[in-house]
Design brief:
With 426 residues, the protein is an alpha+beta fold. 26% of the residues lie in helices and 23% in strands. Strand 9 and strand 10 form a beta hairpin. The longest helix has 33 residues, at 330-362. The radius of gyration is 23 Å and the shape is globular. The protein starts with a helix and ends in a 37-residue tail after the last helix. 36% of the residues are buried.
């Protein structure tokens, strides 16, 4: 009965995250500044938000052959995704079961077996422990009980995601279901990587990156280039677990060379519908992943927390092979992708400047929480989920040190009432 009650409560919390049930009483307020700097809050986020959420690792085409693997490191864990001898893709903790040695180093490689560099324990690509030197020296050892620890894995349209823990959050497919018809024509499953994984440290809290990504009001203020090429077509909307942003290229030639080049030379892509030909489409998936979809390519980005006030951007780009480009247009498509990169390099520089200064402001004792507009639907959606999972996020100012020892509990457990908590007890 206790387990049933726990599961029912967990599902209730997930429903609240998705916007079901009573309205958020703090919907007209942004998240407070203290949660962008507080170490205790950051620890709870790792536990309740990041570890139970899906994270992109690679594309299935990155590991085409048996033994090919890719890694991702986050939350103090290292995960390896590998193509097995049977063709299946699996994920495991990158940890030997003997003395916790990491099995593989680097971002990518190929191993017919995983051989631990410490004591030469051997694992198959399906995770089975198959070789132990001096096996008779371990009275308690059972090979079948000491395979690599598995990690949950999902493949969505060819992209490979992992999840460290299960707290009931929906799958990637379920999160993206409202837009399945829109993304299907892009043929994600047939894409291949066109650039190496890029890791870029940022001196900001991870939420700051996501807030900025989904923010619509700063586009005409801070991004002159996007305003030149989109005009007034930029729009946003929020579904329960995904934000959608889009801008359509205007016909008026930009005064900026690379913007004008992209406008003029973007080839028509035969498999895309008319409305997608000149559309820049952005999705932000709960809680820290985004992908930018263009007619010429797709860029993935995730922002992984590394401390209360720093994070790591992990980026990769994919495109369809040349055989999908109309004959004679291959060079033109490559040049357009370069123009795309030149345009977005400036956008990234502008965003970095903005979020670094927002982060500085979050440290100020003068800032509690700011009013949030009705049009800021994406920020409202994210804030609702975070307040549901960590109710202390309703407090406009930080509680005293040690508050998290008695914190309101997260998904799956009962929570005390924190309603309209504008001030924390001093």
């Amino acid at each position: 009965m206790a387990d049933l009650a726990l599961e029912e409560h967990r599902q209730s919390r997930i429903a609240q995250c998705a916007g079901e049930g009573a309205p958020d009483p703090d919907a007209d307020w942004s998240l407070p500044g203290w949660i962008y700097t507080d170490p205790e809050f950051a620890d709870l986020e790792i536990e309740r938000v990041i570890r139970p959420s899906w994270q992109i690792v690679c594309h299935a085409s990155d590991i085409p052959n048996a033994g090919d693997w890719r890694t991702i490191d986050y939350c103090g864990e290292s995960v390896v995704v590998v193509r097995g001898d049977d063709g299946a893709i699996r994920a495991f903790h990158n940890v030997c079961r003997h003395r916790a040695m990491r099995l593989v180093e680097g971002e990518a490689g190929c191993s017919r077996k995983f051989i631990c560099a410490y004591h030469a324990w051997a694992y198959e690509t399906d995770g089975r422990l198959s070789g132990v030197p001096m096996k008779r020296d371990y009275p308690a050892l059972r090979l079948e009980d000491n395979g690599l620890a598995p990690v949950a894995l999902e493949v969505w349209h060819g992209f490979v995601f992992v999840r460290l823990e299960d707290a009931g959050f929906p799958s990637v497919a379920a999160m993206m279901a409202p837009y399945e018809a829109e993304v299907a024509p892009y043929r994600f499953a047939e894409m291949e990587r066109i650039s190496d994984v890029r890791l870029r440290p940022r001196s900001v809290n991870w939420k700051n990156v996501g807030d900025n990504y989904s923010d619509n009001l700063h586009i005409p203020v801070a991004h002159d280039g996007l305003t030149r090429i989109f005009g007034k077509s930029y729009e946003i909307e929020a579904q329960p677990w995904v934000d959608r942003m889009k801008g359509d290229l205007v016909d008026q030639p930009s005064a900026h060379f690379w913007e004008r080049f992209y406008q003029a030379h973007l080839p028509r892509v035969p498999h895309l519908p008319e409305g997608a030909q000149r559309r820049w489409l952005y999705y932000k998936l709960w809680p820290n992943m985004a992908f930018d979809i263009y007619a010429d390519q797709i860029d993935f980005m995730q922002w992984l927390p590394t401390s209360p006030t720093t994070c790591m951007l992990r980026e990769m780009a994919f495109a369809l092979p040349d055989r999908y480009t109309p004959p004679g247009e291959e060079r033109r498509m490559k040049l357009v992708r370069y123009a795309n990169w030149r345009i977005n390099r400036v956008v990234n520089q502008e965003d970095t400047w903005l979020i670094e200064r927002v982060q500085q402001g979050m440290h100020s004792a003068s800032y509690g929480a700011g009013p949030i507009g009705r049009s800021e639907v994406c920020l409202r959606s994210f804030a609702r989920k975070l307040r549901t999972l960590i109710p202390e996020a309703r407090l406009h100012h930080a509680p005293g040190a040690g508050w998290s020892r008695n914190a309101a509990l997260g998904v799956g457990e009962a929570t005390p009432d924190i309603s309209n908590g504008k001030e924390a007890p001093r």
